[in-house]
Specification:
Layout lengths: L1 H37 L5 H23 L8 H28 L5 H24 L12
């Protein structure tokens, strides 16, 4: 039990901060997705990929500056790794969104929000433990 508490207190500040950065990136993703479908008349499948590239860049930039410590890799390597792990998150996102629309008949933006939420935890964990330094930048001060 104390190990779980130690892990939670160690990573909670970064996870909460990532919730804000991830939330901002998700809002950006949804806006680009909505605009691509509504104004550019793109199919939702194409719009998912356009929104992904824009939102992932925003997420990488903010996360690397505010939340995670550099792993010691070059900026380019970390950038590519963020896109790599985000690509798996995109597969999760796409599968949930498409299934929700096509099989369940869910409204498009509700399905998109469900898809994004499904990929959130993967994206945080992969960045914290694979892409960037495992030691969190943000911590709870010792009392």
């Amino acid at each position: 039990m104390s190990n779980a508490i130690t892990l939670i207190t160690r990573y909670l500040p970064g996870a909460v901060a990532y919730l804000f950065v991830g939330g901002l990136s998700a809002l950006m993703e949804w806006a680009v997705f909505f605009g691509s479908v509504t104004f550019l008349d793109l199919h939702y499948a194409v719009a998912i990929f356009v929104a992904f590239f824009v939102a992932t860049f925003n997420n990488w930039f903010l996360s690397s500056k505010l939340i995670f410590r550099s792993s010691g890799r070059s900026t380019g390597e970390e950038f590519l790794l963020v896109y790599l792990v985000s690509g798996f998150g995109l597969l999760i996102n796409f599968a949930v969104t498409a299934t929700s629309i096509e099989a369940i008949g869910m409204e498009m933006m509700v399905a998109k929000i469900c898809g994004t939420g499904s990929a959130f935890m993967w994206n945080y964990g992969a960045r914290q433990f694979f892409v960037f330094d495992r030691n969190p930048r943000l911590t709870i001060p010792n009392r």
